[in-house]
User: What shape does this take?
Amino acid sequence: MTLSFFDQFMSPTYLGIPLMALALSLPWILYPKPTPRWLSNRLLALQGWFINRFTHQMFLPINLGGHKWAALLTSLMLFLITLNMLGLLPYTFTPTTQLSLNMAFAVPLWLATVIIGMRNQPTHALGHLLPEGTPTLLIPVLIIIETISLFIRPLALGVRLTANLTAGHLLIQLIATAAFVLAPIMPTVAILTATVLFLLTLLEIAVAMIQAYVFVLLLSLYLQENV
Assistant: This one.
């Protein structure tokens, strides 16, 4: 029973062929394509309004040099939200519960922000490693600590997203299993458990959206430091 709880996090295969690429490409099919017509339907209008508001809010504190990242980070947030939300459906696979996938998103984007900072303003970028007014004896220790914290950033991005989604999926499966087992024995307790399951599902929907937003928000903060 314990092992079966973790089967949902295994990468799906069909006839020995991994279906991770299919799981990653499916979300793009669900979004309506922009139309050249002046008048569009309500769904396209709502989608455009949401993207515009998010982009405006995200890049408000960033100068014009960082606005080149708007399309990339907005697309990444929509992509992560869609993957997280689709993973809450029954009998589906959530690619963002795989640490390797999240690290594949986090490491290149974090590295790109660091390279931009080193190329455009190396003195300012290196200045983050040593706060102003540091005592002389603490300079080597602080440089080591700040360097370690710098390299931990992409790991924290990937682990945060993976851990939150994995914990939520495990809780949903555990409580659903408990409700199913208690139904013929104690129907009243099973109803209460099902109510808790419904509330937890609503919470996981919020977590799925918030974690995608936090992932992109932290990347934008890293970009703001280096632009």
